[in-house]
Automatic annotation (TrEMBL):
<feature type="transmembrane region" description="Helical">
    <location>
        <begin position="126"/>
        <end position="147"/>
    </location>
</feature>
<feature type="transmembrane region" description="Helical">
    <location>
        <begin position="248"/>
        <end position="265"/>
    </location>
</feature>
<feature type="transmembrane region" description="Helical">
    <location>
        <begin position="7"/>
        <end position="29"/>
    </location>
</feature>
<feature type="transmembrane region" description="Helical">
    <location>
        <begin position="41"/>
        <end position="64"/>
    </location>
</feature>
<protein>
    <submittedName>
        <fullName>Polysaccharide biosynthesis protein</fullName>
    </submittedName>
</protein>
<keyword id="KW-0812">Transmembrane</keyword>
<keyword id="KW-1133">Transmembrane helix</keyword>
<feature type="transmembrane region" description="Helical">
    <location>
        <begin position="339"/>
        <end position="362"/>
    </location>
</feature>
<dbReference type="InterPro" id="IPR050833">
    <property type="entry name" value="Poly_Biosynth_Transport"/>
</dbReference>
<dbReference type="InterPro" id="IPR002797">
    <property type="entry name" value="Polysacc_synth"/>
</dbReference>
<feature type="transmembrane region" description="Helical">
    <location>
        <begin position="159"/>
        <end position="179"/>
    </location>
</feature>
<feature type="transmembrane region" description="Helical">
    <location>
        <begin position="85"/>
        <end position="106"/>
    </location>
</feature>
<dbReference type="Pfam" id="PF01943">
    <property type="entry name" value="Polysacc_synt"/>
</dbReference>
<feature type="transmembrane region" description="Helical">
    <location>
        <begin position="225"/>
        <end position="242"/>
    </location>
</feature>
<keyword id="KW-0472">Membrane</keyword>
<feature type="transmembrane region" description="Helical">
    <location>
        <begin position="309"/>
        <end position="333"/>
    </location>
</feature>
<keyword id="KW-1003">Cell membrane</keyword>
Length: 503
């Protein structure tokens, strides 16, 4: 099992890197072929569908939890009943999703009459139908992916994720090369997703030998499941408000092209989050144990240790993007996307606080205190929505990004207030250790600006040359001025492993 987890983790990292690199290569092709308007509509359809997907209500986590529970108890009858119940539940949710989708379909013209023209509304309606079919299949298929995770068949799951990350963009580019556009991409994506879902079904019945019984609903278990899922559901709603509503608002008030511009900026924020959080998973088991034991002194020690590493990685990415992100976007996406750079900066700067404190969420779950965080998240997300609705009419795309940035900042402040005054964590000690890293990061930013004036990176080769020199300078400055013995030993171990691989 240890090798299973280790191999799955390696595959996860490969998937993350491959997925992001392929996305960086694939997005300009899609932008060039579709144009800003159609790419914006494509993004808008996916945004609307993501809201309907909230009907999942956290049941995906419940499938894993209750399958694991009954397997641990060797309760085969319970497994058959619970999986049958989950499949029926998801089929009901799929039907409900289709009904809601049909209602939305007939009102798309009214919703987006101020931002989209008649031709764009007709396009979005066609794409929405295909995306709705994809969603209807996705709900019941969730049961089978959850069962596989509960059985700890991580390698199969991660290999499938890697296949999705690599093949999906290749299929999309092939569709565009054949002369199809956004509608063709959605049809191909739907077929591909269904095929992957069928692979999960075959694996469950042929390899895992699962069985299902459809004997109605156990009201007690159903109530327990929904109690467990409720706060996960609240967090999911808040997440969607934060990261999907801005595109929806732009479609209502501004138009299709600004959605594309905003989406590019938001995409770079997504890269920032994914690369910055790669290291977190290695510390999850120890953090959970410390939180459960309520050893707050040692808990704070490990939180500081992890947060400093997160800051080291996140500030490197953020500063690098601040320095050459605009040039990269202009080369990568083309003229007319300058605003995407400023949108990305507005989203990324406050995001760094969430990144360095990413394991606090795990701590709260271990302490059974995650409800308060979910409520804070949802409350601030609603404030962000109202603020963005106001600012978009004054500042357009930048207004949406600014509203989200203000919301994220308030969310971080409220969470830190909760950590200090309700959980009695020593946040002064925590921030003192983090702030010690801020001035070397500022020095790197200043030196980076000087380096840009010398190199003047206006093409991919210039940006690559800057990245190499800046990376070396960044590591040297932090090594001399900021890193402690533990952090230096981590970097040394990475280099030693890399060296041994080369030999």
């Amino acid at each position: 099992m240890k090798n299973n987890i280790k191999t799955a983790t390696i595959i996860s990292y490969i998937t993350l890197i491959a997925g992001n690199v392929i996305s960086i290569v694939y997005t300009p092709i899609m932008l060039t072929t579709l144009g800003r308007g159609e790419y914006g509509l494509f993004t808008l359809v996916n945004t609307i569908i993501s809201y309907i997907y909230l009907l999942d209500m956290g049941l995906g986590n419940a499938v894993i939890r209750y399958n694991s529970k009954y397997m641990a108890e060797n309760n085969e009858q319970g497994l058959k009943k619970i999986n049958g119940m989950f499949l029926v539940l998801y089929c009901i949710i799929a039907v409900l999703g289709i009904i809601i989708g049909i209602l939305i379909y007939f009102n798309l013209g009214n919703i987006f009459s101020n931002g989209l023209n008649i031709t764009e509304i007709q396009q979005i309606k066609l794409m929405f139908i295909v995306a709705l079919v994809n969603l209807a299949f996705a709900f019941p298929l969730n049961v089978f992916s959850g069962i596989i995770m509960a059985n700890e068949r991580f390698i199969f799951t991660k290999v499938l994720a890697l296949i999705r990350a690599v093949l999906n963009p290749i299929i999309m580019v092939s569709v565009l090369a054949l002369g199809q556009r956004a509608l063709g991409m959605l049809i191909a994506s739907t077929i591909f997703n269904i095929l992957l879902g069928i692979a999960n079904i075959i694996y469950c019945f042929k390899t895992l030998k699962i069985k299902m019984k459809f004997l109605g609903f156990d009201e007690g278990i159903l109530a327990e499941i929904f109690r467990y899922s409720f706060f996960i559901f609240l967090s999911a709603i808040a997440y969607r408000i934060y990261w999907s509503t801005d595109q929806f608002i732009l479609g209502m008030f501004v138009g299709a092209a600004p959605i594309a511009i905003y989406s590019i900026g938001s995409q770079f924020n997504g890269y920032f989050i994914s690369f910055s959080n790669v290291i977190s998973n290695m510390f999850l088991p120890k953090l959970t144990k410390l939180a459960t034991e309520e050893n707050k002194k040692e808990l704070m020690s490990i939180l500081v240790k992890i947060s400093r590493i997160q800051f080291f990685i996140a500030s490197f990415i953020l500063i690098g993007f601040i320095l050459v992100g605009k040039q990269f976007i202009l080369i990568w996406a083309g003229e007319g996307y300058e605003l995407s750079y400023y949108i990305a900066i507005l989203l990324m700067v406050p995001q760094i606080f969430s990144i360095i404190q990413s394991l606090f969420a795990t701590m709260l779950e271990a302490m059974s205190k995650h409800r308060v965080k979910a409520l804070i998240y949802l409350g601030v997300a609603i404030f962000n929505l109202v603020l963005s609705l106001f600012l978009v009419q004054i500042l357009g795309s930048i207004g949406c990004a600014l509203g989200t940035a203000i919301g994220m900042t308030i969310n971080s402040l409220l969470n830190n207030w909760y950590y200090k005054f309700k959980l009695n964590l020593d946040m002064a000690y925590y921030w003192k250790n983090i702030i010690n890293l801020a001035w070397p990061a500022t020095l790197c930013l200043v030196l980076g600006y000087m380096l840009i004036r010398f190199i003047n990176p206006i093409n991919y080769i210039g940006i690559l040359l800057f990245a190499i020199i800046f990376s070396i300078a960044y590591l040297l400055i932090f090594w001399i001025l900021a890193l402690n013995k533990y952090e230096k030993s981590l970097i040394k171990s990475v280099f030693m492993k890399f060296k041994s691989k080369l030999n």
